[in-house]
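Aim 2 progress. For Serine/threonine protein kinase, the working sequence is reproduced below.
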Amino acid sequence: MLEELIEQVERGLVPHIRIESVDPLNPIVVRQVPPPWVLLGAGNYAAVVRHPDFEEWVVKVYAPGRPGIEEEAEVYRRLGSHPAYSECLHVGDRYLVLKRLRGFTFYNCLLRGIHIPKQAIRDIDSALDYARERGLHPHDVHGKNVMLDHGRGKVVDVSDFLKEDPCTMWDDVKTAYNRFYFPVFHKLPIPEHLLNMIRKSYRWLGKSSRFRTGSGKDT
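Predicted structure tokens for this construct:
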């Protein structure tokens, strides 16, 4: 089955998918996905797609000019098999074949009013500790890169886990969870325009140390 998927990727996907790196500081832009492939999402480096005949796997295709595929493959090699992470099954010239994770990102949970339990926060804490034990440095862990699956937390994107510079995004997520989400919003959908305003304000403030006071370790 994996060999069949790789053939589909090499012949039907990679030559025909159109993804562009318009601005290195912003996510890539997906112009075209050939049928029957379905776009699941796009990030800073790549687009993630699936084929309806291979529901257990996804393919992450890197945009031309965006680096990082070798680094991401190395991250998955170090992580091995863990319930909170995907697994890399094949590395191509500009794509990875990954085990598919199912569920809703925390961001989508906020939009839909899906309750995020404290167990999911603990699961992600544990998964990030596991990554550190394997010489990795969890980076860029935020609401669109973590997922809720039947009450359990998963980490969706590990592409920056070889970066060694400090990253406090997950501590900031936990702070917001404990200060605002759990007391007020845990059963209420939050409008997308409000989430985007919060996200942009957070980036503009440069991850204010005042906001991070009390990083939410009581989860």
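Residues 88 and 98 are 5 Å apart (CA to CA). This observation will guide construct design in the next reporting period.
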